[in-house]
Amino acid sequence: TKWIFKNKKDESSSVIQNKATLVAVGYSQQEGIDYDETFAPVARIEAIRLFLAYAAHKDFTIFQMDIKATFLNGILKEEVYVGQPPSFVSKQYPDHVYDLDKALYGLKQAPPAWYDLLSQFLIDSGFQKGSIDITLFIKKKVLTPMVEQAKLKLDLVRKPVDHTDYQSMIG
């Protein structure tokens, strides 16, 4: 573990607050001993663009959420031990280590812990993981992003179709 110090500044670059964060030193972990894999779920830019374009076209409301706190509350699936920070070494037990109960920012186990928690919440809320991009969650599954109604009927009358709606969606 180590301390990260930052200074919060105002518009005139004057320090208005000192911040200190205790983080696990992820780069000192040894392969095969204290981690399984590095994990970073990131949506591809194409998926984000398609989602935003379709949501804007359909005038959907999009919600954004801040997940910083999840890094501090993620549940670890394995036991993780960290050494005492240099400024907080116990005089009575200098060789003791800490057993982490929750994921700690900077720990390699933190991203999968928060992703598992977020995924389970979204799935419980009726979302499904995308078939192409598993980091994109979809509330209502359709055959293609352009489908407006799940059931389509054959037009026996053959009335003319207005192409402007379709053309505006695909550019």
From TrEMBL:
Which residue ranges does the record assign to the Reverse transcriptase Ty1/copia-type domain?
Answer: 1-140
Q: Which InterPro entries match?
A: RVT_2 (IPR013103)
**At the top level of its lineage, which domain of life is listed?**
Eukaryota
The molecule here is called Retrovirus-related Pol polyprotein from transposon TNT 1-94
Q: Which organism is it from?
A: Tanacetum cinerariifolium (Dalmatian daisy)
